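User: What would this chain look like folded?
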Amino acid sequence: MVATAVGLLTAVTVHEASHAFTARWQGDGLACGLGRCTLNPIRHLDPVGTVMMLVVGFGWGKPVPVRENWLRSGPRTGGALVSLAGPASNFAFAAVASLPLRFDVLPVRLSVPVGMDPLQLAGYLLATIVLLNILLGVFNLLPIAPLDGFKVALGILPRQAAVNFARLEPYGPGILMLLLMVGYLNFAPFGLGDLLNPVVTFVMRTLVIGP
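Assistant: Here's the prediction, encoded as structure tokens.
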């Protein structure tokens, strides 16, 4: 549980700070003015999301405020860049953090090691951090509001298609909750985890073992 909490805290902090830094780069300093351009995790914690991290092992950070009309590249492209920065930072962080595992400096462990061997524990902690950063990155790329993938999709779709797709935004949270509940309660042959797990596993294996 400690490794999961550390992994989620790291992933959420990197993710949200990257949104804030990218928004400032795009010309909107609101988030930085609110103290979000920092890797101090306390600045990015959401009370409910933090409780969820501790209770169910997954949660979220405090959303970063962005004034899309202030963005240098415009609301669509600029908004997509700010949104993409979160998942991209998780993948970049996972790639760097995985180096000790890939080059056998630490053993790769995805289950709690028996005993208190420092190298085994360090390998377990680092592998958990890498895995959760990948998971958060992949999950947030789903094109469902309010996830980052929705704004990314709006930025890359043709304008009319983006206008039509934007109409789904109010229904996004309900769709996302339905997908999560279907998987959790086994109402369907497959759930959200069945869609995400192959991608997460592929990225994890690529980073830790190599292509």
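The chain is about 65% helix and 0% strand. If you want, I can go into more detail on any region.
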